[in-house]
C-alpha cells in the first residue's frame, strides 16, 4: 500500500476542492519541515493520516517536495495537507 500526500486547495465560498498538488515527502520529512505542525491525538509521527490546515509559511516550506508549482491565493482558497492510499 502506497500513501500519497497532497496539498488540497479548497474554494472558500463553497468549500469545494479546486485542485490537488502532489507531494513527494515522507511523514518524517513532514515533521522535520513543518516543525510547527501539531498532530491530532490519533495520528502518529510515522504515519500522519489526518488532514491539517496549512498556512502560507507552511506551504512555502513544502514547495521543494511538490511535483508542480503552487501559487497560493489565501484570499480565495484554503489549503490542507491530506493523505490518501494509492488511488491510481
From TrEMBL:
Residue ranges of every copy of the DUF7683 domain listed in the record: 4-81
Pfam families reported for this sequence:
DUF7683
**InterPro entries from the UniProt entry:** DUF7683
Q: What is this protein called?
A: DUF7683 domain-containing protein
Q: Which organism is it from?
A: Chryseobacterium indicum
Amino acid at each position: 500500500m502506497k500513501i500519497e500526500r497532497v496539498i488540497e486547495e479548497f474554494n472558500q465560498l463553497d468549500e469545494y476542492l479546486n485542485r490537488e498538488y502532489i507531494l513527494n515527502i515522507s511523514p518524517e520529512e513532514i515533521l522535520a519541515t513543518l516543525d510547527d505542525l501539531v498532530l491530532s491525538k490519533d495520528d502518529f509521527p510515522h504515519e500522519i493520516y489526518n488532514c491539517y490546515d496549512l498556512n502560507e509559511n507552511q506551504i512555502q516550506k513544502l514547495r521543494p517536495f511538490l511535483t508542480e508549482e503552487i501559487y497560493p491565493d489565501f484570499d480565495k482558497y484554503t489549503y490542507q495537507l491530506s493523505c490518501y492510499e494509492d488511488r491510481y
